[in-house]
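<backbone_tokenisation>
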Amino acid sequence: MKTLRSIAVLAAAVGMASCLFQLEYNVGGTVTGLKGTGLVLQDNSRDDLRVNANGAFTFSSRVAKGNTYSVTVKTQPSNPAQTCTVQGGSGTMAKANITGVVVSCSQAGRYAYVANQTAGTISAFSIDSANGFLTPVASFASTGAGPVALAVDPNGAFLYVANNTSNTIGLFAINDATGALTVTDFSIATGTGPAALCVDPTGRYLYVANSGSNTVSAFAIKSGIATPVGSPVAAGNQPVALQTDPGGNFLYVTDFAGGNVTVLAIDGATGALTAGVSGSPFGAGAGAVSIAVDPAGTFAYVANQTAATISTYSIDLTTGALTASGSPLSTASAPQSIAVDPAGKFVYAANVTSSNDVASYAIASSGALRFSSTAVARSLPVAVAVDPSGQFVYIANQNSGNVSVFTVDAATGALTEVTGSPFLTGSGARSVAID
């Protein structure tokens, strides 16, 4: 009897202890692009965290298993003024720490870079944030032959260049004060015919679409140095464009010859890519040449150059799977490059037809596109980029060797060319990136 009583007392004590000592876990993630001061994050409307630099962050208060967490921006940075947004910031605590919250900070673009394929150079410009006017900084020799694609890391510290002819990637450090470029790594081997680049939202991983070998290469990047992650992963027939979702969980790859979108899962700890997303590859249209994902990560848009259409998809935030939203939109043109503005209100498509224009489309709440207007660029507009502020749109014109700059009507998305545009680059302007 005494033994049974002792067991009962012990069981009660264990039960009380489990109530008193609930399993609790940390909530954290990564901040990128922060240049201002005064950023304050908040979890569950009560736990404040002041962040002073890019990199990892963790809230001091832990959250019990089964309870919810909700990370928001309490105070935006100033000096310079920036806008920071949160991806993957809410959910229910499982039996593990949360480390994948991404806080991305941006401001009006400061520098513009253009890859000149024929000249083998990178043109650098400073941007007047008041009117979009470009002032040349300098022209820099690429580290390899045939530079065709550019990507700036989320912190604005490095520029990555895909050299299509020499099958390499070049890395440049960006001078924060002047925009000038300094080589940090001359020649990183890729697959055959690197055609596109993408840096994940945390700034830790670089992905390269190898159009000649039908693969995607993954690299871990740190302080301007890139280290291969595993072996290249198969990605359709002639992959020419890629884009991550805003949370950095999935990589979307368009293949030109196959007319599909391949979805690859990203390992947040290593950057490794894994195939096997249910339903992948997803059908697009003939000549699927460019892809853009909206800021909320809910919609994806693919420019189908040969089919003269734009495909619209809704994105499953959990699985990464795509669901086509009706039939592709006929453009009566040949869209070569596509981009979404930072507010998720408009889509812009550069059309490589005789009209040499860029089309504006309004985005409905369903993700559907409605044609708005066109603006004339110059000869063979092959690439489009939107300023982080959403004020300006930049178009690289391959045949005319220059870049057109337009202001954006915030209400309609219509474009008006800025004074002084187009701005001279080198011959064969193929890509434009904004820091």
